[in-house]
Amino acid sequence: MLHRFKRAALLAALLLGVPTFALASVQTLDIRPKARPTQIASHAHEPSVRVASSNARFDLWIKAFRKKALKQGISGKTYDRAFRGVQYNSYVVEKDRNQSEFTKQIWEYLDTATSDTRVRNGKRALAKYGALLNRIEGEYGVDKEVVLAIWGLESAYGEQKGDLDVIESLATLAFDGRRAKFFEAQLIAALQILQSGDVRPRNMKGSWAGAMGHTQFIPTSYLAFAQDFTGDGRRDIWERNPADGLASTANYLKKHGWTKGQPWGLEVKLPNGFDYEQTSERVKKPVRAWRAMGVTTIDGKKLPNHGKASILLPAGAKGAAFLIFNNFHVIERYNTADAYVIAVGHLGDRIMGGKKIQTKWPRGEKALSFKQKKQMQRLLRRKGYEMEKIDGIVGPNTIAAIRAYQTSIGVKADGFATTDLLKQLRNR
Asked: Which end of the chain has fewer surrounding CB within 10 Å, N or C?
């Protein structure tokens, strides 16, 4: 999970972006590291790579950091054991620096994240661990399908938890300096975990960015939310038995406001002439208001009432529309990417027998690159639209600016960033 660090990545089999990092709330996926209980894009799905080498400056940094760690309560014995055999790992630095260049359209992401294979494996996991999941649901009040789906996305139901040395990865990234403050905090938290005795140094394995265990918790999230569900005195999210890892995820969601029985969202049908400026996470209405506007379920039925809701268009007016409830935002606390949240919710629904997304995606639409998205933001700013940052992240502020521009040129204000939109901005 991430603590809304707004960077995340998804590569490999999941291409998520990991509960470790969080993707920006966008239509195309920025494959970058984030920060959450885990870190978005299941980095755990990547093959183990260790390009470790002797580095005199890194060795000096380890000695210097020892003083900082001791001041924060880490014993010398814990520190020395943790760093025994640790070397500079250029692989994790390369991963950290190159994440922003990868983009995926939401349908490409969902094709993998909610594939028939992942659904099938989820049903097998439910059959095998149903009793455990029911106990966790009863204890924490979090629906088992969402816990199961997060598990499936983060580590392929425990099969791909990541096997890079977490201390080595975090120390390398802290030393590298690009996001030193964040990774130093994660490194201190990892040392605190080791000092607690929950895991041994070389058994603390995870992704290149430090996401760990069955559901890819980053160390600070582990300290805040990890659970000893087995009662053996250790919060072991790494062991083959997934009980502690799954309970930790349920606890995380509970603490962030999960409402049992409330869906994350559902696919809906919008009426002809619908006002697309109403489609935004920032626009919340009672379900009765959406009913009055002619919105129905995708099958044309009356919308169920689960409290105030918003309508989300992750691929613009040409793609699927979703009515999302508060639980959508709770999953966002695990990973801020809309695509990730939809994947979790939809995978959980499919595992429990739900239908595939019915609306066809605009698969011919090419994703904007990271550089193109930054260019789009610059052009919008030059035309007078409010743009807080030029960061290549198509979040709520950028979407609002796109909507305003679309309104000004008389097209549907769906807020979807496309290559045609970029061409229009360049030529006007």
From this structure: C
Beta carbons of 60 and 42 less than 8 angstroms apart:
no
Could you tell me which of 150, 145, 142 has the C-alpha nearest to residue 113? 150
Q: Is the pLDDT of residue 38 over 70?
A: no
**Which whole-number Å values give the CA distances from 84 to 87, 204, 392, 395, in the listed order?**
9, 13, 39, 42
pLDDT digits (tens, 9 = 90+) for 332-347: 999 999 999 999 999 9
Residue of 46, 145, 154, 332 marked active site: 154
DSSP secondary structure string for all residues of 387-423: -S--SS---HHHHHHHHHHHHHTTS-------HHHHH
Could you tell me which residues come within 8 angstroms of residue 300 by beta carbon, excluding any fewer than 6 positions away? 269
Q: Alpha-carbon distance 242 to 144, whole Å?
A: 13
Please write the tens of the pLDDT for every residue from 258-292: 999 999 999 999 999 999 999 999 899 999 999 99
Number of folded domains that form the chain: 3
**Is this prediction's pTM over 0.85?**
yes
Last residue of a domain, one of 318, 351, 384: 351
Angle at CA of residue 26, ends 253 and 297, nearest 5°: 70
Domain region containing 148: 1-258
DSSP state of 289: H
Same domain (yes/no): 97, 193: yes
Rounded Cα distance, 156 and 58, in Å: 34
User: In this structure, what token pair is assigned to residue 312?
Assistant: 């989300």
Q: Which single residue is written with the structure tokens 């695509």?
A: 339
Whether 339 and 109 have beta carbons less than 8 Å apart is answered as yes
CATH number at residue 347: 1.10.530.10
Q: 356: which residues sit within 8 A by CB, 6+ positions away?
A: 350
Exposed e or buried b per residue across 54-81, where buried means at least 16 C-beta atoms within 10 angstroms of its C-beta = ebeebeebbeebeeebeeeebeeebbeb
Among candidates 262, 151, 270, which has minimal Cα distance to 213? 151
Cα distance between residue 250 and residue 78, in whole Å: 30
Are the beta carbons of 331 and 346 closer than 8 angstroms? no
In a domain, 363, yes or no: no
Residues in a beta bridge with 243: none
DSSP-derived secondary structure letter, 364? T
- Nearest of 38, 31, 22, 5 to residue 392 by alpha carbon: 31
The reply to whether 362 falls in a domain is: no
